[in-house]
């Protein structure tokens, strides 16, 4: 039997990708999360989701630019991890922050653009997570599947705006992530010479 | 191939396929661990350097035993000393809530003097040690509501600002009080970063400053103020958002015109001069209807004027509080 390439890559990404969740859990249990732990948990989950989304968006450009093919093997895993963190981020907001006060949540989502944008980003990721299996790619047909999954570009932009509006005064980090996302989306518009796989 | 008698018999030689798969197994395990470490470590690093929870916000206390019914009732227990001294917005000591407590060592609260200037009978510089002997130190338990929608209940010690202002004998032109934080990037290294226009300036209308609830705090929980809480002297106006409560004050100026205050300059559509706690007027980006009391799960409704409506609403009679937010 032919040995798969890099059999260690995906398990490594999942174990490493769950590290922030483990760290947040341990710190909440030990009281190491400042005096306002719910805010801190929300921030860390949200930022992890954004970083993972940026990693997922970087997979295709890594191929056009450097001919790397290994990122494509973990793109789905990165996307699913990003979705999982985004969902946890939202659930903490819903259950711990707002304590299921649906009137307040609906008002937030409808009236506060930063929350609206974050919520839309999460909604856009739902169909992508559902159609992430090989079976769904076959069922939709690759072309349709690919078109659908371009929604991730919009989700990335919305997530950055969500982050930007959340920050009170120091925009360095949201702008940094915004530039990276813009560069990764921009890289898709350039007609790169097709590269040989390495 | 020559074989010596001590070599194992050829039947014991590990077949190549097994040898290879064992090596693959060990190697893959290492590589999995390496990938997990590198990726997980990278994520933890980036998340750990994430921006502060919700930057800003000087802390601000609430409520007072001497002034009647405003004392926080029993169902509002004091916020722990630990939380009050480790969860602070004091950008001059760092943007993260935990930074001020970690870095406050650079701030030297003695010797300390306060300049009083502007529309007063006799501009002068007062030594802090002398100042605190002139006025009786009182204890006030106040709610403090941060504009970021979290709150605390803090037992402060201090004296009424109004008593100091009376003693200064304001001129007829004095309409406002402006207070300024120390400007010294060595003691307050956050001032090297231009997130706000330093030094931090806050102000009150004269009637607000003279109100008996308005406190110049020198301590909390019976101890002198720590650096992160604005040592040695900071303002506490319990019915306003925390950012009004300027810390480590070095200058008090009575003015005729409304002071240009730091946050109102930085983001005029988000932070006003009045900054009265008002659940009906939301921050443009988030709701002010509820708050998280530090140490509690869930949220409490935010009260008009932070629960001091009976005492202070009269100051704003006839004013449109949506416009004058």
Defining key terms:
heterodimer, A: 198 residues, B: 325 residues, alpha+beta, Sulfite Oxidase, Chain A, domain 2, 2 domains, 7-stranded mixed sheet, 8 helices, 22% helix
Report on this model:
The complex is a heterodimer of chains A (198) and B (325). Chain A is mainly α and 198 residues long. Chain A has one domain (9-187). Chain A has helices spanning 9-29, 37-66, 70-97, 102-111, 113-130, 134-140, 142-149, 151-166, 172-187. In chain A, helix 1 runs antiparallel to helix 2, helix 1 (9-29) runs parallel beside helix 3 and helix 2 (37-66) runs parallel beside helix 9. Chain A is globular and about 50 Å long. Chain B is an alpha+beta fold. Chain B is built from eight helices and twelve strands. The N and C termini of chain B lie far apart (94 Å). At the A-B interface, helix 1, helix 2, helix 4, helix 5 and helix 9 of A face helix 1 and helix 2 of B.
Task: Provide the gyration radius of chain A in Å.
Answer: 18 Å
What class, by secondary structure content of chain B?
alpha+beta
Strand content of chain B: 15-25%
CATH architecture of the largest domain in chain B: Alpha-Beta Complex
Order of SSEs of chain A: HHHHHHHHH
CATH superfamily of the largest domain in chain B, please? Answer: Oxidoreductase, molybdopterin-binding domain
What spatial form of chain B do the alpha-carbon principal axes imply? elongated
Query: Could you describe the largest sheet of chain A, including whether it forms a barrel?
Result: none
Largest sheet of chain B, if any? Answer: 7 strands, mixed
Helix content of chain B: 10-25%
Classified by CATH, the class of the largest domain in chain B is Alpha Beta
Q: Report the average pLDDT across residues of chain A.
A: 90
Oligomer: heterodimer
Strand content of chain A: under 5%
Instruction: Compute the number of strand runs of chain B.
Output: 12
């Amino acid at each position: 039997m032919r040995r798969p390439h890099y059999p260690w890559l995906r398990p490594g990404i999942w174990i490493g990708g769950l590290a922030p969740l483990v760290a947040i859990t341990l710190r909440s249990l030990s009281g190491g999360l400042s005096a306002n732990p719910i805010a801190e948990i929300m921030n860390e989950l949200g930022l992890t989701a954004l970083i993972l989304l940026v990693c997922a968006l970087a997979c295709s450009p890594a191929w056009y630019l450097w001919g790397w093919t290994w990122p494509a093997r973990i793109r789905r895993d990165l996307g699913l991890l990003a979705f999982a963190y985004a969902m946890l981020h939202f659930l903490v907001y819903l259950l711990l922050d707002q304590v299921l006060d649906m009137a307040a949540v609906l008002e937030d989502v409808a009236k506060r653009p930063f929350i609206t944008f974050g919520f839309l980003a999460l909604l856009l990721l739902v169909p992508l997570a559902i159609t992430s299996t090989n079976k769904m790619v076959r069922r939709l047909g690759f072309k349709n599947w690919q078109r659908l999954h371009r929604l991730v570009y919009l989700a990335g932009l919305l997530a950055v705006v969500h982050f930007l509006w959340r920050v009170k005064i120091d925009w360095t980090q949201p702008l940094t992530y915004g530039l990276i996302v813009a560069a990764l989306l921009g890289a898709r518009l350039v007609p790169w010479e097709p590269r040989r796989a390495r | 191939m020559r074989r010596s008698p001590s070599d194992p018999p050829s039947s014991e030689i590990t077949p190549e396929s097994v040898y290879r798969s064992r090596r693959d197994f060990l190697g893959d395990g290492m590589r999995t661990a390496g990938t997990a470490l590198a990726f997980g470590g990278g994520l933890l690093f980036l998340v750990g350097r994430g921006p502060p929870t919700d930057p800003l916000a000087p802390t601000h206390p609430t409520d007072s035993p001497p002034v009647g019914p405003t004392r926080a009732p029993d169902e509002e227990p004091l916020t722990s000393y630990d939380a009050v001294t480790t969860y602070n917005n004091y950008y001059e000591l760092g943007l993260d809530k935990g930074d001020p407590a970690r870095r406050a060592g650079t701030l030297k609260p003695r010797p300390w003097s306060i300049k009083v200037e502007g529309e007063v009978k006799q501009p002068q510089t007062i030594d802090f040690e002398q100042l605190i002997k002139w006025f009786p130190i009182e204890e006030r338990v106040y709610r403090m509501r941060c504009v970021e929608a979290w709150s605390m209940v803090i037992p402060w010690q201090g004296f009424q600002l109004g008593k100091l202002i009376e003693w200064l004998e304001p001129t007829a032109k004095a309409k406002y009080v402006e207070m300024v934080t120390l400007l010294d990037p060595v003691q307050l290294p956050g001032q090297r970063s231009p997130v706000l226009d330093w030094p931090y300036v806050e102000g009150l209308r004269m009637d607000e400053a003279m109100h008996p609830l308005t406190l110049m705090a020198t301590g909390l929980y019976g101890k002198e103020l720590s650096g992160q809480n604005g040592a040695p002297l900071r303002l506490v106006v319990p019915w306003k958002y925390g950012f009004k409560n300027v810390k480590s004050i070095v200058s008090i100026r009575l003015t005729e015109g409304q002071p240009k205050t730091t946050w109102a300059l930085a983001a005029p559509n988000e932070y006003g001069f009045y900054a009265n706690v008002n659940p009906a007027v939301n921050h443009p980006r988030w709701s002010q209807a509820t708050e998280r009391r530090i140490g509690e799960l869930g949220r409490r409704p935010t009260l008009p004027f932070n629960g001091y409506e009976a005492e202070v609403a009269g100051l704003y009679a006839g004013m449109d509080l949506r416009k004058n937010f």
